[in-house]
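Kindly inspect this today.
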Amino acid sequence: MRAVILALVVAVFGAAAGCAAGADPEAAPVIAPGRPGEAGQTVAPGDVGTDLWSAPTEVDLGYVAKMITHHRQALAMTELAPDRAENDVVRRIASRIHDVQGPEIQAMESWQRQYGQVGEAHGHVGGVEDHGGMPGMATERQLAELAAARGADFDRLFVRLMVAHHEGALEMALAQLSEGTDVRVEEMANDVVATQSVEIERMRAIPL
């Protein structure tokens, strides 16, 4: 969207400059829109078309790094379901979560590799993971209890832990949508909100 706005601004000011007598279109200044809440900037024509606003913020980088870890725990939980779940709906939901969040991890890691140096500063590149500060994450004890459970006991514990896990992901995604700036990360966060909100309702509707 910002690229479209910038292109329109360039077109308007370029046309105005070309109409002025003796004006040099290449030398005409361009007013570029600022970030939300910020005033526009006057930039040199040579700067137009560069990724002036494309660099992600610390909020964007932190969200992606944490959500990768958050998703990985969800995958670990869903991988227990085929051998332990009794309820067929629980099995299907676990399979869907696994099938959706696996590719989402790949998409986030692909985005993250573009900014690998900053990602390393966050300690989330190369398999290093920090669970601190992420809502909804199951504890090691809870994961051990889930792995030890079978049948209806597994179903109930899985649903309870996964609903909490999804609610934590929604909290993180909504914070990203409020504070982040990167368009691709915003799309990822919107996907999380749309998908996991539906899955929460489905899990809550399971008679256990």
Q: What stands out?
A: The CA atoms of residues 123 and 129 lie 7 Å apart. DSSP finds eight helices and two strands in the chain. The first helix runs from residue 2 to 19.
